[in-house]
Amino acid sequence: MTYIELKKVFFRQKMLPLFLALFTVLLVATGFMFANKKVHIAVDGTTIMISTLHSKPQDVLVQAGIHLDPKDEYRLSTKKLTDGSTISVYRAVPVTVTYQGKTEVIVTGKPTVGELAESLGMNMENTKLVPEGQNKIEADMFIQAITLTQKEVERDVVERFTVMRQPDSTLEKGVERVIEEGQDGVKTIVARIHYADGVEVSAEQLSEKIKEPPKPQVIHVGTRDVVDTSRGSMRFSRVMAMEASAYLPTDGSVEGITATGVKARRGIVAVDPDVIPLGTRVYVQGYGLATAADVGGAIVGNRIDLCMENDSEAWRFGRRSVKVYILD
């Protein structure tokens, strides 16, 4: 046997099994690659299942006889087409989109509002979508894309003055007197203003600094609850400013009988019972002690009619503003 013949025998005995093993591995790998896969297709409101050897979703759709229009889209549930994958087909539908002052009708096969917005080049960091981005696209849907912006501003605002009320025993109860007028101040604030499509919607204050401090208003509040009369000091519950007039005992009736049945005389006054109840004891500035025991058609609200002894006293008194003390 020659050397060449010996070499051929050696090759058949040693290398042939190795080639056969490699061929077997390649055959198995190819079989896995092109093995039958069961794939689900969700389209037009229904789901179908198909067995396929294809590895590309578009080829599977062609195999299933599903036609895609130019703007129709699909999504694969897995990264690659494998056994059990689902291909979801989204038919293109018209939607109305409003963005940056423009409104247009767009035909889209995007599955969600957010994907459509991104495909239109919207900056999602400063855009608010109505409805929100995760909502599914529906035919004739109205989508509003609101541009959100913000800026910091510095403003001078009024700082309102406060009111300080201080008791004063020299003033009668119910009397208030302004001792010092209040004055508003000014403060500078830094705020962040939030805008939606250029319209201010909210503001948040970042800092503030007093520029001119406000000056408080000081009011003295009377606490003195006694009034000096010809019979000494008397306590009162409140004091009222009223318009007083004078009348004679016979002005109401010839007999001089009041609405409460008592005889009209000095010390009897007519009042509005809704303001001063009948029977109330009062002290009238410039007149003296009296009892509310009569009424009059013209005596309404803060008006009081004082009974005088004669014409001359009534004429001297005339009509004037008086303080009326409601006695305890």
TrEMBL record:
SUPFAM superfamilies: Barwin-like endoglucanases. GO terms for molecular function: hydrolase activity, hydrolyzing O-glycosyl compounds. Keywords: Signal. InterPro entries: 3D_dom, DUF348, G5_dom, Resuscitation_pf_RpfB, RlpA-like_sf. SMART domains: G5 (SM01208). One of its GO terms (biological process) is peptidoglycan turnover. GO terms for cellular component: outer membrane. Residues 143-225 form the G5 domain. Transmembrane segments: none annotated. Coiled coil: none annotated. PANTHER family: CELL WALL-BINDING PROTEIN YOCH (PTHR39160), RESUSCITATION-PROMOTING FACTOR RPFB (PTHR39160:SF4). This is G5 domain protein. It comes from Pelosinus fermentans B4. The lineage of its organism: Bacteria, Bacillati, Bacillota, Negativicutes, Selenomonadales.
